[in-house]
Structure formats: C-alpha cells, structure tokens
Specification:
5 helices; 4-stranded mixed sheet; YbaK protein
C-alpha cells in the first residue's frame, strides 16, 4: 500500500492466475494429465538454453515445439530436445514429404494460436500431427512450453 497503490498486489495475483490459464494447461487438465508449472523470466532469443539455466534443469529435457510445413503448406509440430536440431531432410523422408521447413513466425502463430517463443504442442488452434524425437519419450520428466513466453510445464511422458 506504499504510495497509495492498493491494487498493485492484486495485479500480480491476476497475472499469476493468467499464467495457468493458457489453452495448454486447460488441455492437460481436461485430459487428466499431471503436470508441474514453471514460470521463468523470458529472454528474447534465449531459447531452451536460457529456460533450462533459470529452472536449473538439463537442456536436453527441455523440449522445443516447432511448427513446420511440407511442400503443400500442410503444417505439423515437431518436438525436439532443446540441445538438438531437427534434420528437415530426415524428417521429410520419414514423413513421405518432398520438403519440410519451419513456418514463418506469423504462419506458426496463426496455426498454433501461440506466439513463437511461447508455442505449446497442447491446445493448439489448429489440429496438427505431432512428430516426437523418440529419445524424448525415454526421459522421466520433460519440460515443454505451456502456451506463453516464460512458462514451461513439466510432465512424465510415460503417463501421457
């Protein structure tokens, strides 16, 4: 209440509540998936390296959600370890496409309903096939974007 601003505390309370009210955790709750919530201070272009550092977890267990498209502009989601890159050539071969490339940010935003840097594979605006690096499923805990910049959710991939 210093300086006569009684609403400052309430503003931060509603912001905290907003963090958990993206479509991603709503989707997880609806499907009875247990998950943890991990807000962190978003850093532009910090990527999984920065979120892993702030949360004190191995970057290998922080999973990137990438929106890509094939030569027919059909979108798909790729989940990859934060410390690895996607071979679009191998992915195209495995999916039977001639070519796969990352979507432009505005296209990714439109398909997912999330801002790039805050894209979650859960609760996307458009239903898209999801391709997961198989070694991700061998981990006990993974951290994925929860639908906004600066917010990860953790879950056990064996229970999904």
């Amino acid at each position: 209440m210093v300086g006569g601003h009684p609403h400052r505390h309430n503003a931060s309370m509603s912001k905290t509540k907003h963090v958990s009210e993206t479509p991603a955790p709503q989707f997880l709750r609806r499907n009875k998936v247990e998950f943890g919530e991990h807000p962190y201070d978003y850093v532009e272009h910090g990527g999984t390296e920065e979120s892993a550092r702030q949360l004190g977890v191995d970057e290998h267990s922080v999973v990137k959600t990438l929106v890509m498209e094939n030569e027919h502009a059909k979108s798909l989601i790729v989940l990859m370890h934060g410390d690895r890159t996607v071979s679009t050539k191998n992915l195209a071969r495995q999916t039977g496409a001639k070519r796969i490339e990352p979507c432009k940010p505005e296209v990714a935003n439109r398909h997912s309903g999330y801002l790039v840097g805050g894209t979650s594979p859960f609760g996307t605006r458009k239903a898209m096939p999801v391709y997961v690096k198989s070694s991700i499923l061998e981990l006990d805990t993974i951290y994925l974007n929860g639908g906004r910049r600066g917010y990860l959710v953790s879950l056990n991939p064996h229970t999904c």
